[in-house]
Amino acid sequence: MNTTRWYPSHDQLKDPQSTERSFRETLRMLYELQDSHAALQAQLKQTGKEAVPAGTANPANTTNSASVTRLLGLPVQPSDTTQLADGTVLTYVAATRSFKFM
User: Fold this and answer.
1) Cα–Cα distance, 33 to 97 (Å, whole number)
2) Phi and psi of 91, rounded to 5°?
3) How far apart are CA 26 and CA 8, in angstroms?
4) 2-27: per-residue pLDDT in tens?
5) Dist. CA 65–CA 96, nearest whole Å
6) In this structure, what are the phi and psi dihedrals at residue 29, rounded to the nearest 5 degrees?
7) Which residues contact 22 (CB under 8 A, 6 or more apart)?
8) Is 17 helix (H, G, I), strand (E, B) or coil?
9) Which residue of 1, 9, 32, 79 shows the fewest CB atoms closer than 10 Å?
10) What's the angle, vertex CA 59, arms to CA 54 and CA 62, rounded to 5?
């Protein structure tokens, strides 16, 4: 990815032809960025579909909070963090297919 920035100089905007060339260069960079962004979005969508096990919600469609925290793609049930003490264990609950602090 090209990280350089381009700003037209006064000479590049001195007449209509120079301005057109500069404008085309700006649009070329914009369209290149849009294509790159679209390709990244498509790749993330494809990866997201394959990475989520069947029967679980897609974590990309939820907000990031304690109620939707996931471990290995499985939800972690929320708990009161003020009540957690040394020795608290995170256990897997097969009945609900989730993790819970005990």
Assistant:
1) 41
2) -120, 155
3) 9
4) 567 778 888 888 999 999 998 998 89
5) 19
6) -65, -40
7) 8, 12, 13
8) helix
9) 1
10) 130
DSSP states of 21-70 = HHHHHHHHHHHHHHHHHHHHHHHHHHHHHHHSPTTS--GGGS--SGGG-E
DSSP annotation of 76 reads B
Q: Tokens 């264990």, residue?
A: 89
The first and second tokens of residue 27, run together, are: 């649009």
Higher pLDDT, 27 or 57: 27
Alpha carbon 80 to its chain centroid, in Å, reads 28
Calculate mean pLDDT across residues 74-102.
78
> Do the beta carbons of residue 69 and residue 75 sit within 8 Å?
yes
Q: Where are the domains of the chain?
A: 8-51, 64-102
49's tokens: 């579909």
Here the tokens at position 95 are 């009945």
